[in-house]
Specification:
By secondary structure, the protein is an alpha/beta fold. The protein has 4 domains: about 150 residues, ANL, N-terminal domain (Rossmann fold, 3-Layer(aba) Sandwich); about 120 residues, 2-Layer Sandwich (GMP Synthetase, Chain A, domain 3); about 80 residues, Orthogonal Bundle (Non-ribosomal Peptide Synthetase Peptidyl Carrier Protein, Chain A), CATH 1.10.1200.10; about 375 residues, Rossmann fold (3-Layer(aba) Sandwich), CATH 3.40.50.720. It is about 35% helix and about 15% strand. The strands form 10 sheets. A 7-stranded mixed sheet has the order 2-1-11-10-12-13-14, with helices on both faces. A 7-stranded parallel sheet has the order 28-27-26-29-30-32-36, sandwiched between helices. The protein is elongated and about 100 Å long.
């Protein structure tokens, strides 16, 4: 009786010899007889391969002796079976193979040889011209051509013994591949027999009941199977298939003619000759194949299609997934493919990693909802983590630097997002992933390569590599760039004038598998890039022509000029009306800063007057084309520098007028229950915490999450980030709304459903931007009116809980106590649009409560904090981060009355459950009853920042203003200067009545002391 294989304890040379003895006829590979695959294939058996391995082992020993130090010998070959044979022969003779790519530059290959102490290079004679530059660059290099395949297969050598046991040989090096080098020069990765045993050991992983495995066992076809791949031997995918899969598995590798460039036609012709079980291809070849005549019919006969190296288009993947398993194994040279579980056909783009291999998905960017895959590589993982052996210096945890997003409905599923190295960080600290943009551009038939650059710059630029020497015009490419701009956030969009067309004589640097090497390509184009950014700061990109006779500027001309500059900051395809608020269509504070610089630069040639008066506040106060046009009309023609108007406009009458046509429903309103709740604004800092509290209430059966963003599911799930909530997520239903639109922009069915089912509405959506004027908050006030209409006209009359701010009453008389009651005075708010709009909302709600008898609750909330300063992104954490960078601490900013965000959410839930609010709005204050002075912050920071000076807030602001192009990461307070200047004016010496809040909620607030502050500041 044949013994079961000792999976995870086997050595390839011994297994090969054993197979040659026991199953000599088993087919190892099928190779084409000629360069035309229609002439048929020749099967190469394991007996043939074992014989050729013995031949090459004796051949190597005859030239270099037998090594006892596992010396590296380099190899550059063609795509034939000699590579795997040489690999096994070198192991037998005591060496390890260093796989070099013929696509690498000579200097890259020499670098890898130097890093591994390699002085011997073997090569296929067909590649002799590539060896000459390497010989020329290294006098000590010994180069030898290996025997031809015909010589190997015709050989009759004696057996070359290899009798090592796994226990003795497991840590011996066997092969050296190298990292992709996509960001820098590649580094060698030394692989041992224990590395390969990790893949073999996947046979021993426990089954997951009811689930199909997608790990190394899938390459062990029952009864044998045939695989075709175009990945070369020096690439991890090719190397593992040609060696580990062919020897440890039951896989026969089908080779293509070595000098033919693979395409869809060639693969189809091979499939007509060979009964294949699987394909492992780059996505471009998958697409070519299924578009070939008979392509789809041939694919249907496979067990599966695996793709690697790039994303597969959704259209192609969706077609294939309906007829066959299609997936992308996740892995890297350092880690090998990671064991996974098969997903449902509709989830073909997603990964579900095996629960039997230790890993963590560590939250990387809460805003983007991205996670980094971290592989546990400690002693307990050495049988399941190849990185334990491949990178022994990374034992414990290996951060892959690969980012994923989580599936909102299936939290065990993750989709690949990009590399941390790919993320571009601008000088203002804004980050974005350029990969979707680059892939879209590279999909154009005229473009070979696209590279977005901009790390440390004020805005990104695009470097293009045309496919032919005839360069396409930028005008022809602009529609493609505009479409691609929709795939990245505002800060990542490419503007006109920020594009470089590459030179035919300066091709992009690439890895062996064709990936662009970002850093080396940027270095090659360094002078062009520097010139582009210099020109950006010194030249006029947009023209502004005065009337030739009057030498004056008309409003139409100024409007076009402003539009050409300002619309660059908006999403592609967005059309801005003359009176449309910029901030309602996607402009933000960072983009505002960039646009101000562009305005100043482009106005220089048209006026002798200083443009220093143009600041971000200019845009905030005049956030429409019409308003700015009037401003610049006076400036350009009269030299008039406008004065900022800080008057507090009373907008309440406008919104009360919008409610005049609203009428109460006929009949008796239903008794109040709390089973169905809507939250407007479930993402952000506070929203997910409110959802936590609602989910834990067993009497609440449905929670509608109303958000502007279409990715609200993913973002909310990321922030909940706890398996304990997974069984409760069925309660959540997400609807996308449009602020400022009638009925919240919802389809009639959804709007009617809310009106019929809701018992309560939590209004938590407000833009946390302290720079904007009241005008820019009109969409939120419009949305609030629509919510009031739902409550006022519904038989269920859902109560409204509005999350307001203490700043809405921050300008009341100093040293007074603010009551938990309506303050019907527009001047009561602090002098910023955020606070003024919150107060306006309170007044509109109170009036609606009296008019319609609906239940209204208003919670004025203090500064909320998270578990650490890094987690909340507030003005408070901005002070801390900026103070660290400046080594300067402001002596007084505000009283410390903080409440943890989790406690605030629990209090809001308690308010929602409390009775009252009909006919007369109930106001609550969420603030700490025992305030501390700012000194507690100063003292704690001084201990941490050795040598930091303490200065008045105005001096701290002044120092910040002196810095040009401040980094948003290191100096986040720079985009909130107006807010901090308002704090410097004082006037915050208020106390707040909390009697009603403390009566309605039993939440016990943590004491604010040094321990609390230390914990919040973290490491």
């Amino acid at each position: 009786m044949e013994c079961a294989p000792a999976y995870g304890r086997r050595l390839m040379p011994t297994v090969l010899d054993d197979l040659a003895a026991r199953s000599p006829a088993r087919v190892y590979a099928a190779i084409p007889k000629t360069n035309d695959v229609k002439d048929g294939f020749r099967d190469i058996t394991v007996a043939d391969v074992a014989r050729m391995v013995n031949f090459i082992a004796w051949w190597v020993e005859g030239r270099f002796g037998k090594s006892d130090k596992f010396e590296a010998i380099g190899y550059i070959g063609i795509a034939d079976v000699r590579g795997p044979i040489l690999f096994q022969g070198l192991i037998k003779s005591g060496f390890k193979i260093l796989l070099l790519s013929p696509r690498n530059t000579a200097s890259t290959n020499i670098s890898l040889m130097m890093q591994t102490g390699c002085s011997k290079l073997l090569y296929a004679s067909e590649l002799s011209p590539l060896i000459d530059p390497m010989r020329a660059s290294s006098l000590s290099l010994c180069t030898v051509a290996i025997p031809s395949f015909e010589d190997m297969v015709a050989s009759t050598p004696k057996h070359y013994p290899y009798q090592k046991l796994f226990e003795d040989a497991q840590d011996e090096p066997a092969a050296v591949l190298h990292s992709s080098g996509s960001t820098r020069l590649p580094k060698p990765i030394i692989m041992t027999h224990a590395s390969f045993a990790v893949l073999d050991n996947e046979h021993n992983l426990p089954e997951v009941i009811g689930r199909k495995r997608r790990d190394w066992t899938m390459w062990s076809f029952e009864g044998g199977g045939r695989l075709f791949t175009v990945f070369p031997f020096f690439h991890l995918g090719g190397f593992l298939m040609f060696t580990v899969a062919a020897i440890f598995g039951k896989t026969t590798i089908v080779y293509a003619p070595p000098f033919l460039v693979p395409d869809g036609t060639l693969i189809r012709d091979i499939m007509l000759q060979q009964r294949l079980n699987a394909l492992l291809l780059p996505p471009s070849l998958v697409e070519q194949l299924i578009n070939e005549p008979q392509g789809m019919e041939l694919v249907k006969k496979l067990d599966f299609v695996a793709y690697s190296g790039a994303p597969l288009s959704s259209a192609i993947g969706n077609r294939l997934s309906k007829i066959i398993d299609v997936f992308s194994p996740y892995g890297a040279t350092e880690t090998y493919p990671q064991p996974e579980l098969a997903t449902s056909p509709e989830d073909w783009e997603w990964h579900e990693f095996s629960p039997h291999c230790k890993h963590e998905m560590q939250l990387f960017d809460p805003e983007e909802g991205t996670y980094e895959l971290v592989i546990m590589s400690g002693e307990s993982s050495k049988n399941t983590a190849a990185v334990y052996h491949n990178l022994p210096h990374s034992r414990g945890q290996f951060h892959t630097k690969d980012l994923f997003i989580r599936n909102a409905e299936k939290p065990n599923l993750f989709k690949y997002y990009g590399r941390k190295d790919d993320i571009i960080t601008l000088s203002n600290g804004e980050k974005f992933n350029p990969i979707p943009f680059e892939l879209r551009i590279q999909g154009d038939s005229s473009i070979k390569g696209a590279l977005v650059i901009g790390n440390g710059r004020s805005q990104p630029a695009l470097l293009l590599e045309p496919k032919s020497s005839e360069q396409p015009s930028l005008e022809d490419l602009w529609p493609l760039i505009e479409k691609s701009n929709t795939l990245v956030p505002g800060q990542g969009r490419i503007h006109r004038g920020m594009i470089i067309l590459g030179c035919p004589d300066k091709p992009f640097a690439r890895t062996g598998k064709g990936t662009i090497i970002r850093r080396l390509t940027e270095d090659a184009y360094r002078s062009e890039i520097e010139k582009l950014y210099v020109d950006m700061h010194s030249s006029n990109v947009y023209d502004l022509q005065a009337d030739a006779q009057t030498l004056s500027y008309d409003r139409v001309t100024i409007s076009k000029f402003l539009r050409s500059i300002l619309t660059a900051g908006f999403p592609a395809g967005v059309s801005i009306d003359e009176d449309q608020d910029f901030y309602s269509v996607g402009l933000d504070s960072v983009q505002t800063t960039i646009l101000v610089s562009s305005l100043k630069r482009n106005l220089k040639g048209h006026t002798t007057a200083s443009c220093d008066w143009i600041t971000p506040r200019t845009i905030f106060k005049n956030p429409t084309i019409h308003a700015l046009c009037e401003l610049f009309y006076e400036f350009l023609n009269e030299g008039t520098i406008p004065k900022h108007n800080d008057e507090n406009e009373d907008v309440v009458p406008k919104y009360l007028a919008a409610l005049t046509s609203t009428s109460k429903p006929a009949g008796t309103r239903e008794p109040r229950t709390l089973t169905t709740v809507a939250i407007v604004g479930s993402t952000g800092f506070l929203g997910p915490e409110i959802i936590r509290s609602l989910l834990m209430d067993s009497s609440i059966i449905r929670i509608y999450c109303l958000n502007r963003s279409k990715d609200a599911k993913e973002r909310t799930l990321t922030q909940l980030n706890s398996e304990s909530f997974t069984p409760l997520l069925h309660k959540l239903e997400y609807l996308t709304i449009e602020l400022g639109k009638p009925r919240l922009g919802l389809p009639d069915d959804d709007h009617n459903k809310l009106a019929a089912e809701l018992d309560a509405i939590v209004f938590n959506a407000w833009r946390p931007d302290f720079n904007l004027t009241v005008h820019s908050f009109h969409p939120f006030l419009h949305a609030l009116v629509e919510v009031i209409k739902i409550s006022a006209t519904s038989v269920r009359s859902p109560r409204i809980l509005f999350v307001s701010s203490l700043s809405s009453v921050g300008s009341l008389a100093s040293n007074s106590t603010v009551p938990e009651a309506l303050v019907d005075d527009p001047a009561a708010a602090t002098s910023m649009g955020y606070a003024q709009s919150k107060l306006a909302a309170e007044r509109v709600l109170a009036a609606a409560c009296r008019r319609y008898g609906i239940s209204v609750l208003v919670a004025r909330v203090c500064q909320l904090v998270g578990a650490s300063a890094r987690s909340d992104g507030s003005w408070l954490s901005a002070v801390v981060t900026t103070s660290k960078t400046l080594n300067l601490i402001p002596s007084h900013v505000a009283v410390v009355d903080w409440v943890r965000v989790s406690d605030a959410a629990k209090m809001l839930y308690d308010f929602l459950k409390a009775p009252g609010g009909e006919g007369e709005a109930l106001f609550y204050h969420i603030t700490h009853p025992k305030q501390q002075s700012w000194d507690i912050i100063v003292d704690t920071l001084r201990k941490r920042l050795n040598g930091a000076s303490v200065v008045p807030l105005r001096q701290w602001i002044g120092r910040l203003k002196e810095i040009e192009h401040p980094s948003r990461d290191k100096l986040p307070a720079a985009v909130m200067l107006d807010f901090f200047e308002s704090l410097a004016e004082g006037g915050e010496k208020l106390t707040y009545d909390t009697q009603r809040a403390s009566g309605a909620s039993s939440v016990s607030l943590a004491r604010i002391d040094v321990k609390f502050i230390e914990a919040w500041l973290g490491e």
